[in-house]
Amino acid sequence: MTLPLRPVSTVGALADALRTRVLSGEIEPGTPLPEQEIAASYGVARPTVREALASLVHEGLLRRERNRSAYVPEVTISDLQDLMYVRRPLEDLMVRAVAGRRVPAAEAALRRWDALPADAPWSESVAEHMELHQALIEAAGSPRLERLYSVLAAETRLGMVRLRAVYRDRDVVVREHRELLDAIAEGPVEHARAAMAAHLSHTWGSDPHS
């Protein structure tokens, strides 16, 4: 089946289409993405496919090895635990700086997340989740913290894909983030830090296959 794309930027449109499928879990980890098959499916030239795949490899959403098609990397429970090992101190630094105030951009991301239609692809939840946490990090006012956090963005997004099996009801995860933002805004700092630590342990400590 041919899936036509708008000619805005064919490479960008194809990358967006593939990104949505990856972040919605439609393309499962380990599934190869042969350039010729993608070109035929979307009705585009192979150089276009090559550029789009390269973009997603650069983002960390795909991996490419010598003599092998690009594929979605597997994020294991061990990977998630190590990701949290690094994320926790960064999120804690953010909370220390932000506790006691609202972050409008994070609140806006939560409202958009909550307003998504029930049948919205999981990729849209992933996007708003990332916007919310990124807004909190930026509110801390440390460019270096932002840079460190951005390095973890791809694995965090892929981790959210894995959590799709845990949070079948989007309202639950939205409510948890509402409670987190309230705890950060209301303070005091130690209460906000504890809320963030609990949030990360609860959300990312879940094994969708257990």
UniProtKB/TrEMBL annotation:
The keyword Transcription applies. Keywords: DNA-binding, Transcription, Transcription regulation. InterPro entries: GntR_C, TF_FadR/GntR_C, Tscrpt_reg_HTH_GntR, WH-like_DNA-bd_sf, WH_DNA-bd_sf. Signal peptide: none annotated. One of its GO terms (molecular function) is DNA-binding transcription factor activity. Residues 8-75 form the HTH gntR-type domain. This is GntR family transcriptional regulator. It comes from Nonomuraea zeae.
